[in-house]
Amino acid sequence: MNKIKFFLIAVGYILMNPIAMSAQTENHISMESAVAIAAKNNANIQIAELDYRISNANYHQTDAVFLPQLSVNYAAIVTNNPLNAFGFLLQQGIATSQDFEPSKLNNPGATHNYGTSLDAKLPIFNLDMIYARKGAKLQQDVYKYKSAYTKNYITFEVKKAYTQLQFAYQLRQILQGTLIDIKQINQSVNNFYKQGLVQKSDVLNAEVQLNTVESALSKATSNIENASEGLNLIAGNPQDKQSLYSTDSLTQEIVGFENKEVSETRSDIMAMKTALNASKMMAKSSEMALLPKVNAFGSYQLNDNKVFGFNKSSYMAGISLSWNLFSGNQNRSKIKSANYTTSKINKELNQFIDESRLELNKTRRDLNDLQIEIKKHDTSVAQATEALRILNNRYKEGLANTTDVLTAQAQLSQQRIALAQTIMSYNITKYYTELLTSNY
User: Fold this and answer.
1) Rounded CA gap, 20 and 220, in Å?
2) For the whole model, what pTM was predicted?
């Protein structure tokens, strides 16, 4: 009876840990189709694509490093300030000799000016902004690689979810077969009890195991619905939530990348490398801020003493050179911070690559261990099947008791479930290895 208890506990443990997957439409779906749907509709992939577009827009903000800036302004002003009032008269081109009288100069009264101006700025030499633009371009590439890795990772998650759904169907199938066997055993026990060949406890034990398997089968059906809905969520394919996906049968995948290593062109590693280069550009930009800047400017103005009047025109154009010689150690500290940030990213990159290689080595060992487990469970299923056959024959001849038959049946179901679960783990580990060894 200990083996029966172990079997019931094992089944209960599996069924009390729902598998996260999803369902939408009532149809058969292949793994390739699920991956294709996710690539098109998954929310995380769409968010990553939006992040890339945001970074692209941020990069194009730096077009101002080369392009001119133009603005149009209209201002209506009234003043009795002597200096400004006389200046307005000159700007409007209406100053006369009477306006130079001291009393009028000192007390001009309310003077109006309505001015329109077209202002332009043109950057000529700003090395710090040029390097900042290069950093923004590299930052855009960072999000491009992040978007690519998100697609790769979601592909892994879809395959994982699909495999778990396959296991949910496999578990139900195993329990359905177990239920058929248990019903036959239960029928035989009841017949023998009516003939006085077995005790009431044998009938009760058979009934307990029958009820347990029926309950487990009901939970297995619910788990299929949960797993189907989970797959639907990952794939981002919201349709009829009451429908279920059906899958291909669960079989062991073939591993064909034993000699592959972690590629430094993998998209997440490339994202970190590009972030490192972007940090270097920003550090260079901080250093270039110490150099002088040269910019051109110009303004064309129209002034009048009437609203919407455009009587007098004038212009102004020039080139300015500015050099910030000392900013209270702000620039020096900014350069140090940028250099420290670059060193930090570089160390994080090297550590991440080393951790990825260790993770790959561990995953390969897990694959080997799971392969051994599969072989062992294959053998155990065959042995448990033969043991149950022998005990069934002996039981029909009255040479074995009910407990032995129930124990053998529990052991066979336990081994079948363990085999299916190990195949599921093996396939998921294989897909994870594919993710680790991806070249992009």
Assistant:
1) 13
2) 0.82
